[in-house]
Amino acid sequence: MSHSVRLRIPRTLVELIRGDLERPHSVASERVGFLACRVGQASEGELLILAKDYIPVDDVDYIADWAVGARIKGSAIRDGMQHVLDTGDSLLHVHIHGGRGVPSLSSTDKHHIRRIVQSFSSVGLRTPHGILLLSEDMANAWIWLPGSNEAVQASVISIVGYPLQLVHPHLPALDRTAERFSRQSFLGGGGQTAIARVRVAIVGLGGGGSHIAQQLSYLGIRHFRLFDGDYVDDTNMNRMIGATPAHAQSNVRKADVIRRAIEQIAPGAHVETHEGPWQDYPELLRGADLTFGGVDSFSQRRELEIGCRRYLVPYIDIGMDVHQVSSEAPRMAGQVILSMPGGPCMSCIGFLTEDRLSTEGSHYGAAGSRPQIVWANGVLASTAVGLATDLLTGWSRRSERLVYLLFDGNQGTVTPHVRLSYPSWPMVCPHYPPADLGDPAVGLAG
Amino acid sequence: MDFPEDQIRELQQLFPRAGRADEGGVTFFVLPAVPLDTCTPKTVDALLCPTQRDGYPSRLFVSQQIQPSRSANWNAFRILERNWYAVSWRIRDGLRLAQMALAHLDAFR
Questions:
Q1: Model pLDDT, residue A299
Q2: What is the distance between the alpha carbons of residues A139 and A133, in angstroms, rounded to a whole number?
Q3: What is the pLDDT of residue A178?
Q4: Between residues 340 and 369 of chain A, which touch chain B (CB distance below 8 Å)?
């Protein structure tokens, strides 16, 4: 039985909701709507509610009642029930409370929401339903789990987009004026709080992942989930940050090396490590707010991206390679890619292609011993951490950012890939539609 | 992606609990509890991908590695939030869905 809930809503959907709810109505002082969601199970009983669509209430379904903000007809509720019956979705009643700060339920909300939830639950017995409140800058949500009469307040509401906004309705703002972060105060107090509270997953703890882990520790990240089933060996000693020859000789797990490195930089950080690949602990990956991938193969990247997209987790991928053709100088290249749920994926932008996956597959999936070197990994990792910092804090005030950076190791440059100048992909990814969110649902074959 | 209804019916005749799910723009047919009389294990769940993926025109993924197998090259995959395995086994083109599934299962005869 789940006992905590994380709600994730694509930023584009939040904007759609606000656009509808902020319109005036002739017989109501506020508008309401319904957020359709899919569900996913994360670790330790944590439930993920993943918003996929917004269902506005038609103008004609409002009843004039100036004693309350909005009153809607039974037909609107029945439409919601039909949606639950047809799709198996969870529904959240949603409306806006004016002002700033974390909104709370009004007496009217408390009075009416139980009956609405009961109506949806009567046709959707196995799915949670609830209510989402938005203020000008924050959100709050209460979810009734299947079979429960009491609501669970969402522990985190993620507005998934660029920037990534993480709302912790029940937590106060952290005092991040500690001296150790004084030099990065330009990130803003809210930014340092976001850094301290975000749950980060790092998949692959070799040359790239070890750099990322170290930098995130210095940055102020305090919640890590580390995935790498390998052990340190001599071939890692040219680049793995934190690894020593003693680790290689003693057959120490990479995850343990990085965990200790993090704990030395950030005592008190919460670091989870796991003995095998992330595929053996998928629920843990789902529960992360942001994932970094420093993996070896295109197929591994695809699997990571799929896992992240399904559960609305932004994914930052890094990698490098060195090619040599005949007698020419080696050519070093790498990438930093942000795969933002809803936006173009790594297939959309032409990084993951059938050709690349086929070539890899023809070698039975073995990535081989790709060339790796510490300074190139450092450039890529630093770029990824810088990207994540902006994503979490919004310090650069950029938004809706499509990130596909190409590292030219010969020139020493990191520049936007030329493909971004001539986009040939839809801005909404067709490979990962909202209907595929959450735990997979296997339908009838026909 | 759409598939001919008659082929789907044929597939369901062989695998009555066959289901369908999409991921990453690819359609998979889920075949629960496929019996393997002469193998270990005796039953596996299977996943038929009837379209081009990773250089294979079609492929069958199974929930556990199977012995014996006419191909020894097993690889692991994660699809539809489960771990699967597949061997390097190619079949001829132009088969119907049910024929495709059976041709892939030939790898374990």
A1: 94
A2: 6
A3: 75
A4: 347, 354, 357-362, 364-365
